[in-house]
From TrEMBL:
Pfam families: MFS_1
Lineage of producing organism: Bacteria, Pseudomonadati, Pseudomonadota, Gammaproteobacteria, Cellvibrionales
Matches recorded under InterPro entries: MFS, MFS_dom, MFS_trans_sf, Sugar_transporter_CS
Protein name: MFS transporter
Kinase recorded as keyword: no
Length: 408
């Protein structure tokens, strides 16, 4: 097997084929598609299953249950990826993703719907972990930073497309958006053609100078915490914003999709433009401080919004912070990973991201039931301000050199 991604000192970095880059980008977009596609359907889905006890929470779990399975399965997927290969796991995961996602069109019970979402989460765990590890395998550090900004933009734009399409289909029927999942099967031929299995943990790699280092674990634990909380806050938007819009008299699913998609669209622009500049000028902890602060401002504006236009401005501001932070989290994590650990590091990051998504409705719904929807967004804004302050404090403290690869 070829040693993909290993570059000897003084040798020019190999160009990454465009087809390989586009295949990875499309695969990465499947993660946002797993939730964004059906977000506009939630109010209609809740009304359809209104006879079920605790349907307010269960309807939110339709969106967040896959996140629990990703959080539980991503570390195992990372181990499998490191030991048995990225591509084999990826093909199996994309196949399950297609079947589980589209099978919802045939489900006639809430229990069956929840079961299909569990399978979808397992599939996303394998997909996301394999893709992240392949990015670490294929790209040099400099190439990886550029790719991560592109991936952040592509995922956000994919969210825009899925939300818009999901909203339009939800206007027809709440089940219709689930048909979008079937398009994932089209990516398997591209995986087979453009994503060769990299060699890892071989004598050739050791001779070629591949780094054998482990992350500075306290700093990596902070990174995992930041990833989890970022997702916990973000998931308020797809799970709760459609209901906030209903309170404002806006109950058309396509309009809810547009409002949510606004954050993704601005997030795409931020990933391409704001993130590279912020990382160059602010350092790693500075980007965390900026991202959390901007998100806090946007979340606070959502809480006070009284019209669709105001909500869209607020979600746009939130998206600017989110688009800056998400690629930064994964780029920072992969920088700390030796080739033999990339699958497991990617799995840990995926688990943190999606446990935050799963916890979001469990944390927010009891608060919202007691204090109201606007109060839930206000509380999230306050918590984001706290995280921005912690990141700024770390930035001022000038972390030790041993922490620099993760934090400074």
């Amino acid at each position: 097997m070829s040693s993909i991604g290993a570059v000897s000192p003084g040798v020019a970095e190999p160009m990454i084929p465009t087809q390989r880059r586009l295949t990875l980008l499309c695969l990465a977009a499947l993660t946002i598609m797993s939730g964004a596609t059906v977000a506009p359907s939630l109010p209609a889905l809740e009304a359809h299953f209104a006879q079920h006890e605790n349907i307010a929470l269960l309807s939110r779990l339709i969106l967040s249950l896959p996140a629990l399975m990703i959080a539980l399965c991503a570390p195992l997927a990372g181990l499998i990826s490191d030991r048995y290969g990225r591509r084999r796991l990826l093909i199996m995961a994309v196949s399950i993703y297609t079947l589980a996602g589209a099978s919802t069109l045939l489900q006639d019970s809430l229990e069956g719907l929840l079961a299909s979402r569990i399978l979808l989460g397992i599939a996303v765990a394998g997909t996301m972990t394999s893709v992240s590890a392949l990015v670490g395998d294929y790209f040099s550090p400099a190439q990886r930073q550029v790719y991560m900004s592109q991936q952040g933009a592509f995922i956000s734009l994919g969210g825009v497309v899925c939300l818009m399409a999901g909203g339009l289909l939800a206007d027809i029927h709440w089940r219709a958006p689930f048909a979008i999942y079937a398009v994932a099967i089209l990516l398997i031929p591209a995986v087979l053609r453009y994503l060769p299995e990299p060699s890892r943990n071989t004598a050739h790699q050791m001779r070629s100078g591949a780094k054998k280092e482990t992350p500075y674990w306290p700093a990596f634990a902070l990174l995992l915490g930041a990833a989890m909380f970022n997702s916990l806050a973000f998931f308020l938007i797809p799970t709760q914003l459609p209901f906030l819009l209903q309170e404002l008299g806006i109950d058309t699913p396509s309009l809810a999709g547009i409002a949510i998609a606004t954050s993704n669209l601005v997030g795409a622009l931020a990933s391409l433009t704001l993130y590279p500049r912020a990382r160059d000028h602010l350092g790693k902890t500075g980007v965390f401080a900026l991202g959390f602060a901007v998100m806090a401002f946007g979340m606070g504006l959502i809480a006070g919004a009284e019209s669709l236009y105001a909500v869209m401005i607020a979600t746009a501001i939130y998206g600017a912070g989110m688009g800056t932070l998400i690629p930064h989290i994964f780029a920072t994590g992969l920088e700390s990973a030796a080739p033999t650990l990339r699958g497991r590091i990617s799995g840990a990051l995926a688990a943190s991201v999606f446990i935050g998504q799963f916890l979001s409705p469990l944390v927010s719904q009891p608060w919202i039931d007691r204090f109201g929807l606007a109060s839930g967004f206000s509380a999230a804004s306050c918590a984001l301000i706290v995280f921005a302050g912690l990141a700024l404090t770390l930035h001022w403290l000038k972390p030790k050199p041993s922490m620099e690869m993760n934090l400074q």
